[in-house]
């Protein structure tokens, strides 16, 4: 009976040594108790840089020439709409004011 327990004790020690060696070789985290660990989440690559690289750099905020050109385009479009009679109404003469006066 003593030989059987020694054999099982030796087997568990060998198994523990093998798992430790495997963890060292492959870079795994050894968790003999089986408790929950954040290691699975922490070993993933951070995605912030990848997400930031997806969006192009916003040059409209950086370059005043681009802002000036956009403003000039907006004003020219507004002027063209006014000439056709499609521009915005003067203050106080909109659709709501016309409904109220009826």
TrEMBL record:
The keyword Mitochondrion applies. Pfam families: MRP-S33. Keywords: Mitochondrion, Ribonucleoprotein, Ribosomal protein, Signal. Belongs to the mitochondrion-specific ribosomal protein mS33 family. Residues 78-102 are annotated as: Disordered. GO terms for cellular component: mitochondrion; ribonucleoprotein complex; ribosome. Its main location: mitochondrion. Residues 83-102 have a biased composition (Basic residues). The lineage of its organism: Eukaryota, Viridiplantae, Streptophyta, Embryophyta, Tracheophyta. This is Small ribosomal subunit protein mS33. Transmembrane segments: none annotated. Residues 1-23 form the signal peptide. It is found in: Mitochondrion. It comes from Tripterygium wilfordii (Thunder God vine). InterPro entries: Ribosomal_mS33.
């Amino acid at each position: 009976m003593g030989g059987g327990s020694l054999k099982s004790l030796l087997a568990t020690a060998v198994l523990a040594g093998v798992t430790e060696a495997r963890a060292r070789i492959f870079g795994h985290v050894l968790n003999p108790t089986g408790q929950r660990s954040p290691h699975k989440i922490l070993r993933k690559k951070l995605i912030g840089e990848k997400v930031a690289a997806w969006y192009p750099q916003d040059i409209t905020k950086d370059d005043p020439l681009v802002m000036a050109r956009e403003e000039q385009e907006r004003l020219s479009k507004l002027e063209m709409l006014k000439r056709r009679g499609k521009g915005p109404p003067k203050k106080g003469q909109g659709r709501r004011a016309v409904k109220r006066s009826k």
